[in-house]
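The instructor's notes for this session suggest beginning with a concrete chain rather than abstract definitions. Hand out the sequence below and ask the class to guess, before any prediction is shown, which regions might be ordered.
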Amino acid sequence: MTQAPQSISFAAMGRRQQAVAQVVLKDPAVESLSSFIGVDGTNATLTVPHADYLKPKSARNADATGVIRRLQDSLTQVHGIEMYMQPVQDLTIRRG
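After discussion, reveal the predicted structure:
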């Protein structure tokens, strides 16, 4: 999740989100990135977009926590926006 100042315009948020995306996509553990900005059922404000991006564990050189630490260091170069990351396990459970 990223967050910028409440006073940011939509256009400025888009530019900052793009800058974050460029940094994230350079990491070798990142397969893809899908992010969005705007208000909807998930985001209550313009300034809290979400992104998903890791390769499967077998295809990367670090666990999710290691990737997060590495990305946090890289993202310090993007000013005016903060990115908050947490590892999330994707599980689907079906009842038979």
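Then share the key points. The mean pLDDT is 82. The radius of gyration is 14 Å.
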